[in-house]
């Protein structure tokens, strides 16, 4: 095996490791952005209005013979 081939292989392996590290960093940044966007959307949902005060007898039975 030639020495230049060994150096080229070592450089290629190191370059691949760097590319993977950069790819992982970009992926984590994208996930952080998506998480903050999702949080903003969830917080933007208006609160559910409360139901009007109904008498206690309403909503307890269902008329199945109608």
- Which structural class fits the helix and strand makeup? mainly alpha
Order of helices and strands: H
Instruction: Give average pLDDT, whole number.
Output: 85
As a percent range, the share of strand residues is under 5%
The percentage helix is 55-70%
Count of DSSP H/I helices = 1
Contiguous runs where pLDDT drops below 50 for at least 5 residues = none
Overall shape: it is rod-shaped
Quantity of strands, as a count: 0
Distance between the termini: 91 Å
Q: Outline the biggest β-sheet.
A: none
Query: What integer value in Å does the Rg equal?
Result: 31 Å
Oligomer: single chain
Protein name: Motility protein
Organism: Duganella phyllosphaerae
InterPro entries: YjfB_motility
TL;DR of this structure?
This is Motility protein. With 66 residues, the chain is mostly helical. Helix content is 64%, strand content 0%.
Describe this structure as you would to a colleague.
The protein is an all-alpha fold and 66 residues long. It has a domain at 20-44. It has one helix at residues 3-44. The longest helix has 42 residues, at 3-44. The mean pLDDT is 85.
